[in-house]
Amino acid sequence: MGRQTTFSDMEYGNRRKKTRREKFLETMDAIIPWAQLCALIEPYYYNNKTGRPPIGIETMLRMYLLQIWFSLSDELTEEGIYDSRAMHDFMRINFLTQQAPDATTLMKFRHLLEKAELQQRIHLEILALLESKGLIMHGGTIVDATILQASGSTRNSSGKRDPEMKSTKKGNNYFFGMKAHTGVDAGSGAVVNTSYTAANEHDITQAHENFREDDSSRYGDSAYLGVEERPEIQEMDHGKEMTYHIGNRPSRRKERHDYPLNWEKIIEAKKTARRCIVEYPFYIVKRIFGCDRVIYRGIAKNGCRMDMAFASANLYMFRHRLLPLST
Fold first, then answer.
1. Could you tell me if 60 and 105 are in contact, meaning their C-beta atoms sit under 8 angstroms apart?
2. Which is nearest to 120 in space by CA: 32, 207, 191?
3. Quick one: CA dihedral 114, 119, 122, 128, positive or negative?
4. What is the pLDDT of residues 25-58, one digit of tens each?
5. What's the CA gap between 136 and 114, in Å, rounded?
6. Residue 51: its pLDDT value, please?
7. Cα–Cα dist 247/225, whole Å
8. pLDDT top residue among 15 and 248
9. Band of pLDDT at residue 102, cut at 50, 70 and 90
10. 253-292 burial by CB neighbour count: b if 16+ within 10 A, else e?
């Protein structure tokens, strides 16, 4: 997919400084296992024996990743490739011989991935890569959930809000949307399991989906109090020695003083210090990638988008360790 160097490339390469976007895209380009991911998609991709040949899988995958990382619509992703030199270079296309795929082609590619549930398989493929490099540890999982807000507007063709999205209260605020439930490797901080529900679903109901079978220790905040007593968890833990480190609510603590020492407060602080690494993938996905809101209708479509974002977040977390190994 290489292209011939032009005078414009030489002039652009003579700048004193690279932008953060350019550095980010160069890093991700170097660490993504393109061959493995394209081989994963190939059995489901178009194989036209007549008519115009389809656009290459890697080209479409690169365009789709740009859409995920910068939280763009199909149309804005197409325009971004023409507008941004960094995005154009990441796509590895030469406008003298090839144009960027249009928004409709990107939409069809996204639907193809969703129909075959390839976003989940890509997530697993990247986890396998990290495990082969010795970056994933086993023995402990931290579970948590985050809210993704959806539009409450009824100004659409149906005149109704998304029926799969629900409202929930957190603190003193109400949120309408869905929840992303994750299981994070306690040693490395990588997201190893995901599940998605409406926002009004309690976190504890998805714990069994995100804990791992080979766990010996499990962590969670106060929303998971009593999780070990749930029947699906007891079935997972049957015959195993399991330790649960679940945060306690301040209202349930018995010690009300800090002198000379409040042991309950100290223990809860240590639990929080271990559990806080679950927030870093949420930070990457929601703040760096901008995937903090629901943009499609339906939980399944948005879940596919989030699976791709969490897979990218896993690579982003270990980019400094993967870069020397990929060169």
1. yes
2. 191
3. negative
4. 999 999 999 999 999 999 999 877 666 778 999 9
5. 27
6. 65
7. 7
8. 248
9. very high
10. eeeeeeeeeeeeeeebeebeeebebbeebbebbbeebebe
Q: Is the pLDDT of residue 13 over 90?
A: no
Could you give the domains of the chain? 7-116 (no CATH), 138-297 (3.30.420)
Cα–Cα dist 68/34, whole Å: 16
Say what the pLDDT of residue 251 is: 73
Amino acid letter for position 254: K
On the CB side of 134, CA atoms within 13 Å amount to: 2
Q: pTM for this one? A: 0.90
Q: Of 201, 204, 248, nearest to 222 (Cα)?
A: 248
| pLDDT (tens digit per residue) in 231-269 | 999 999 988 889 999 988 877 777 667 767 777 778 888
Residues 6+ apart with CB under 8 A from 168: 147, 174, 175, 179, 199, 200
Measured CA angle at 42 (ends 299, 97), to 5 deg: 105
Pairwise pLDDT comparison (98 vs 303), residue with the higher score: 303
- Residue 52's pLDDT is what? 74
pLDDT above 50: residue 325: no
